[in-house]
Amino acid sequence: MTVMTDAELWPAEYLGDSRPPRSLSMPWQMNVALTTRCPLNCPQCYVKAEEARDIDWDVLAAFIAEASALKVHELNLSGGEPLSYPRLVEAVRLATAAGIGTAVATSGVGLTAELAKELRDSGLGSLWLSLNGSREEIHSLSRACFRETVAAAELLRSLGQPFYINWVARRDNAGDFPALVTKAKELGAGGIVVLVLKPDSRHNAEAVLTGEAFFRLAAFLRGYDDPAMPIEVESCYPALRLAVYGKWTTGIEAGCSAGRDAVAVDVDGRLNPCPHLDYPEAGLTVREYWQNSPVLAALRATEEAIGAPCNRCGHTPYCRPCRAKAVKVYGDPSAGDRQCPVALRELTGRLFG
Ligand SMILES: C[S@@+](CC[C@H](N)C(=O)[O-])C[C@H]1O[C@@H](n2cnc3c(N)ncnc32)[C@H](O)[C@@H]1O
Prior knowledge:
By secondary structure, this protein is α/β, with parallel strands linked by helices. Helix content is 33%, strand content 11%.
C-alpha cells in the first residue's frame, strides 16, 4: 500500500508553519462532553457515573466561537448521553451557523421522530449509534439497551435520515463482527467505525482484543470490500490499522490523535487531550492550550519516550497506541502497549491471549 504523507491527508491550511511538532496547526476535531447525564449504565463505559451536570451554555458557545475562528473541522458531541442535554439542537444549530461540522454519538435512547427531524434541520453532520453486537446477548456484555438502539436505527431509516455505527472491538464481541455488518446492512446504516477498547471508569481494559481473535478480525477486515457498507478503523487503533492496511502513513494520523489532530472539552469546560485522558487545564483559549500545554507537548514526544514492547517494535514510527490505556492501566503515560498483538507477534513469533 502507498504510504500517505500529511500533505496528502490534510488540507494545507491545517499544516501551517506555526504548528506544534507532529500536529496540525489547529485541532481538526474537538470532542465535547455536553453532559454527565445518561439513562444507561453500560459496563464498558469510561465515563464515571456522577451527579447530573450539563456544560454551561455560555462556555460551550464560547468554545464554538473559538472553534469557528480557528477553523476546527468538526465538533464531536458526546457525554454522557448527548440526547439528554436540553440544548443539543441549539448547540448543533450554533455550530452549523459558525461553519463547523457536527457529529453526535448516542445510544439512541430518547430519540424521537421530532428530535431526529430537529437535529437534521439544525444541520447535524452525522449521527452515530453505539452498537456492540448483532444480538442482544452480545451487545449486553458491554452495553445496555440493545432494543432501544435498534429501534432508533429503525426510526432513522423510516425518516430517511442517515446514521452510522460505532462498534467497540472486544474479546466478547469480535467473533460477532461479520453478523454485526449484516445487521448494520439490514438496519440501513451508512457505515461502521471500529473503535479500540479504552479503559473503563474503573481503569479496566481486560476485554481488549488480543491474539488469534485480533488477527481473525484483521483478516475479515482485509478481505472485506463492500462499498455499500464502508468500514473504517479509528486512528486510536493503530495496531488494527497496521494489521489491516499495513504501513499506510507515517504522519499525524498514525495512532493516538490526542494533541495531534484532536482536543477535548469536558463537562466543566476544561481542555483535555482527549475524552479518555484526564489532564484538565482551565482558563486557556484553545489556541493557547494547543500551542503551550506541557501535557500536549509530552504526548507529541510519545515516539521517543515509549516503553516496551513498542520501543523494540519496528512499527513504532507509525504507530502510537492509546495513551489512555498507558495512563489508566499501566500508570505510566509513556508505557507501550504490553498487550499489542502486532508487536508481540513480531517480537516473539507467538500469539498471546
Ligand atoms: C461514552 S459514549 C457517550 C455517547 C452515548 N451515551 C452512547 O452511548 O453512545 C460514546 C462512545 O464511546 C464508546 N465507549 C464507551 N466506553 C468505551 C470504552 N471503554 N472504550 C471504547 N469506547 C467506549 C461507546 O460505546 C460510544 O460509542
